[in-house]
């Protein structure tokens, strides 16, 4: 379903970056080459030290709005800051993404073609070789008894062959690698949780949108976003990723738990998972500390930044 008025609506992209100037340049070049020209591009730099500021000054001055934050606020802090800037500037649509994705030339145009169907539009992420890399889930488990996972089947599980993928797919989750939000959604639910720092901030935002009002998260499969970096799911989980993912996932599961029984089951499950992680990592005190800190900090009103 196309929207004939989509070209009259303003669109701003928000790109969050940290010490990846080469990837950022590819992302910006792709955005500047979109067939449907963007009205603004905001680059939020989490205090990079790799010459990102110089790259922007030399190659993108006057073409993007660049803001270097005083400290690394994580992806969540960057998206909070960038979305707030774009929203307060009055843009109709806000397009969020990390620096490690490159949209296809018609990506934005394809998204806006469905702007009457939904106010949250998500492109399909693909690998550089053209295979399906869309890890957003079609089902979320925010309050499903006995289920510890955050997400159910993902798009790449259901449709490994892109030749058979439908034109649109309803989601209950997305990644901050290309979702396009109408400003009315932002006005209703606010900005991403910057205190999450990294990981699960996108899931939290998706769940907040779905559980606080009638909304559709729509993946537009003709709109393609290329992931520049490969999936790292098979790699060993670093301490910082373990900590932030567990802490933020625990917060989410507790937020949406409806009964004391669900919370008790969550505590038992996490205790067992902690023991397994401790043993699997050769009784690593570092791993045990990350697991325990994640549990304790998930109950705090003010979330610490233990790794930056």
Strand content: 15-25%
Arithmetic mean of pLDDT: 93
Quaternary structure classification? single chain
Task: Name the CATH architecture of the largest domain.
Answer: Alpha-Beta Complex
**Counted beta strands:** 9
Distance between the termini: 43 Å
Largest sheet: 9 strands, mixed
| Parts with pLDDT < 50 across at least 5 consecutive residues | none
**Helix-and-strand structural type:** alpha/beta
Number of domains: 2
- N-to-C series of helices and strands: EHEHEHEEHEHEEHHEHHH
Q: Roughly how much helix do the residues carry, as a percent range?
A: 25-40%
Per DSSP, the total helix count is 10
Cα-based radius of gyration, to the nearest Å: 19 Å
Shape: globular
What does this structure look like?
By secondary structure, the protein is of the alpha/beta class. The chain has 2 domains: 6-227, Spore Coat Polysaccharide Biosynthesis Protein SpsA, Chain A (Alpha-Beta Complex); 239-297, no CATH class. It has helices at 21-32, 52-59, 74-88, 107-112, 155-158, 183-189, 201-211, 239-256, 260-280, 285-297; strands at 11-17, 40-45, 65-68, 93-98, 101-103, 120-126, 168-171, 180-182, 217-227. Strands 1, 2, 3, 4, 5, 6, 7, 8 and 9 form a 9-stranded mixed β-sheet that branches. The termini are far apart. The mean pLDDT is 93.
């Amino acid at each position: 379903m196309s929207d004939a008025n989509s070209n009259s609506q303003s669109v701003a992209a928000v790109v969050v970056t940290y010490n990846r100037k080469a990837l950022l340049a590819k992302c910006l070049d792709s955005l500047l080459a979109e067939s449907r020209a963007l009205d603004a591009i905001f680059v939020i730099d989490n205090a990079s030290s790799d010459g990102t500021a110089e790259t922007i000054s030399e190659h993108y001055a006057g073409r993007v709005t660049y803001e270097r934050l005083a400290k690394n606020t994580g992806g969540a802090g960057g998206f909070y800051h960038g979305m707030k800037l774009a929203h307060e500037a009055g843009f109709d649509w806000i397009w969020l993404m990390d620096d490690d994705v490159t949209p296809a030339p018609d990506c934005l145009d394809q998204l806006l073609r469905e702007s009457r169907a939904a106010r949250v539009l998500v492109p399909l992420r693909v690998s550089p070789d053209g295979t399906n890399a869309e890890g957003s889930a079609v089902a979320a488990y925010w309050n499903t008894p006995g289920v510890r996972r955050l997400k159910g089947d993902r798009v790449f599980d259901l449709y490994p062959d892109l030749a058979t993928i439908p034109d649109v797919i309803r989601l209950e989750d997305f990644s901050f690698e290309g979702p396009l939000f109408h400003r009315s959604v932002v006005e209703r639910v606010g900005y991403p949780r910057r205190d999450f720092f990294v990981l699960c901030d996108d899931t939290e935002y998706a769940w907040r949108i779905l559980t606080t009002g009638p909304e559709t998260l729509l993946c537009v499969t003709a709109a393609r976003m290329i992931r520049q970096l490969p999936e790292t799911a098979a790699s060993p989980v670093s301490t910082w990723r373990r900590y932030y993912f567990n802490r933020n996932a625990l917060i989410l599961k507790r937020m949406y738990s409806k009964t004391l029984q669900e919370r008790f089951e969550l505590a038992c499950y996490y205790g067992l998972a902690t023991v397994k992680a401790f043993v699997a990592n050769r009784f690593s005190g570092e791993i045990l500390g990350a697991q325990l800190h994640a549990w304790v900090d998930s109950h705090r009103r003010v979330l610490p930044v233990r790794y930056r």
